[in-house]
Structure of Cobalamin biosynthesis protein CobQ:
Amino acid sequence: MTEILAIANQKGGVGKTTTAVNLAASLAVLKKRVLLIDLDPQGNATMGSGVQKNELNFSATDVMLEDAPIEAAILTTKTGYKLIGANRELAGVELNLAEKNRREYVLKDAINRIADSYDYILIDCAPSLNLITVNALCAAGGVLIPMQCEYYALEGLADLSNTIDRINQSLNPELQIRGVLRTIYDPRNTLTNDVSNELIAHFGDKVFETVIPRNVRLAEAPAHGLPILFYEKSSKGAIAYLNLAAELVKQGKKQKKAQGKPA
Ligand SMILES: Nc1ncnc2c1ncn2[C@@H]1O[C@H](COP(=O)(O)OP(=O)(O)OP(=O)(O)O)[C@@H](O)[C@H]1O
Ligand SMILES: [Mg+2]
């Protein structure tokens, strides 16, 4: 069974892309077959995977416009996972999409063709809840929500919960919150602990046990086009993302067992 996860939070700069790239690399280290789809016109996940966003022959734009089969857009990277890249052209897709039948399901229909080849498909979303992000939420079985534990983190949470509820009721009944990830975490800050406690009160065991610490190596690695594991594998950031990958895999096995499916 392929697990398809949208990494989403309409708040900017909370660690979505850092999580997408480093979780993809960590799952690959655990011998999982991983596809990372960059669905953000900023193209940060593409660059962070060591691929030049402005030199893509086929990209997420072609997938969303149905210009090319999804297979053509899948790149092999040096990072152990496959990638569908994106750049600013993706921003123009929104208008074309609006005119389509099944406009919310273009990505899902494309992914369906190739899903069997992967254990995990991660989709890095832009910081907005537009139709492109809705496509990610319709293609996914779960949402992974990175959250920075600061005062404003909880603002906007209601918007995201409402969107997920709405999509759940109308477009994708399978969509679940797969987990809330505390990112850029600084335990010396008392506010961090307060917000963390509030997240646990609100989301209960949906909050991952793994916490991603504030770690300068995580911020440096993208400039080298490398996931942290290839940049500084013994850093706290690298270890945290490996732990997250292990936690995700372990939970997935438990869920399958509970549903009576083979692990
Ligand atoms: N754990 C961390 N420790 C230190 N810096 C981090 C950490 N996680 C992310 N950063 C840095 O914070 C900034 C924002 O991170 P990132 O790009 O992953 O967020 P994002 O949610 O994808 O942003 P956007 O909403 O713009 O797509 C980046 O400069 C990144 O390098
Ligand atoms: Mg991003």
Observations:
- The radius of gyration is 17 Å.
- The CA atoms of residues 129 and 163 lie 8 Å apart.
- The chain has a mean pLDDT of 94.
- Strands lie at 3-7, 34-39, 74-76, 82-84, 120-125, 142-148, 176-185, 207-213.
